[in-house]
Amino acid sequence: MPEIPLVPVHWHFPAHPTSARRARHAVAESLPDVVRPHLGDDLGLLTSELITNAIRHGACREDEDLIELVLWPADGHYWLAVSDPGTGKPQLAHPDTDCESGRGLLLVDSLATAWTVRPRPTRGTSVIAGLSFHAAG
């Protein structure tokens, strides 16, 4: 009989700056105890960066637009998908050293085992990032 996968954890957050902290805590609380010490900090950082980018670049008004966050384990990874209603395609930037922002996806690129940007079937964009995890056995 095949192993039945875990059901993904799913949240919606308002497009408001306080949502990054709330999302980071939600992800940390949902991780199994065996995973939290190994991936908790990196998943928290990825969550914060992706939620912040979605709020800044993919949402219009905080009272109408929601940011969707999904977390699930699959194929030796923990995956995050952050979706917003925007139509833009996030791309890596290489800002000058005196710029105060623009490094979020560089951080995602250096932390994540793999990441991509996908359009949503109905409206919006998803950024999906995964971190490798192999439990010590």
Automatic annotation (TrEMBL):
Highest taxon listed in the record's lineage: Bacteria
Pfam families: HATPase_c_2
Gene Ontology molecular-function annotations: protein serine/threonine kinase activity
Histidine kinase/HSP90-like ATPase domain span: 13-127
UniProt cross-references to Gene3D superfamilies, sorted A to Z: Histidine kinase-like ATPase, C-terminal domain (3.30.565.10)
Keyword Membrane set for record: no
Transferase recorded as keyword: yes
Keywords attached to this entry: Kinase, Serine/threonine-protein kinase, Transferase
Protein name, per record: Histidine kinase/HSP90-like ATPase domain-containing protein
Organism of this sequence: Streptomyces naganishii JCM 4654
